[in-house]
């Protein structure tokens, strides 16, 4: 008799089903690391965000009048900094930035000079900041950095690089990620059909 777990279509009648097993000695020490760097714990991925604090109300007041204000604990308001430090591969945009370009900018940087990389994507002098983030609704602030040696560097334009302001190749995967959801799938395909139709009309208009 053949057991259910041994019925495999591509096996010969005399073959025995031997599924490949993982190396348990090798994977026993593996740790699951989130691809989004501890999603949900903003204080662990944002150096400018303080750790969360559970607010508890004070004791009930003995006398309540119409002129009273709320006695709920005052929440800590953290002002946005003018810029962010270079986070050495742990950068995450605090809020969704605008897409600044398909490819990184190949830019010559001078040793010792301080630069402010645009993190919001709305700059008109990209990839460097021109202060647009102060006039729009965003928590993104420029990343202040410098380099130890003068030379050409690839500066991120997609605003999603974990090694911002330097490119780490994330822009190569953005279209793949967008194409996997229905909005990106139809958006990219309809855009292709649109421009394909325009080109077809241009070349066949006088025929």
TrEMBL record:
GO MF term set: 2 iron, 2 sulfur cluster binding; metal ion binding
Cofactor(s) needed: [2Fe-2S] cluster
Keywords: 2Fe-2S, Iron, Iron-sulfur, Membrane, Metal-binding, Transmembrane, Transmembrane helix
Domain of life the protein comes from: Eukaryota
Alphabetized Gene3D superfamilies for the sequence: CDGSH iron-sulfur domain, mitoNEET-type
GO CC terms of this entry: mitochondrion
All copies of domain Iron-binding zinc finger CDGSH type, residue ranges: 102-139, 140-177
Membrane-spanning segments: 185-203
Protein name: Iron-binding zinc finger CDGSH type domain-containing protein
Organism: Strombidium inclinatum
């Amino acid at each position: 008799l053949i057991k259910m777990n041994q019925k495999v279509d591509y096996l010969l009648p005399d073959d025995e089903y031997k599924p490949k097993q993982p190396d348990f000695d090798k994977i026993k020490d593996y740790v699951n690391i989130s691809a989004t760097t501890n999603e949900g714990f903003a204080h662990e991925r944002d150096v400018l965000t303080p750790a969360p604090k559970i607010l508890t109300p004070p004791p009930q007041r003995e006398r309540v009048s119409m002129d009273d204000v709320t006695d709920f604990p005052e929440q800590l308001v953290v002002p946005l900094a003018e810029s962010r430090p270079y986070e050495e591969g742990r950068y995450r945009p605090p809020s969704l930035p605008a897409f600044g370009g398909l490819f990184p900018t190949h830019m010559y940087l001078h040793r010792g000079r301080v630069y402010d990389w645009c993190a919001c994507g709305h700059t008109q002098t990209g990839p460097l900041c021109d202060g647009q983030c102060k006039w729009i609704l965003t928590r993104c602030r420029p990343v202040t950095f410098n380099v130890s040696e003068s030379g050409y560097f690839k500066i991120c334009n997609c605003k999603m690089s974990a090694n911002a302001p330097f490119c780490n190749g994330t822009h190569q995967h953005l279209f793949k990620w967008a194409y996997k959801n229905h909005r990106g799938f139809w958006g990219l395909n309809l855009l292709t059909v649109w421009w394909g139709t325009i080109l077809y009309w241009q070349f066949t208009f006088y025929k």
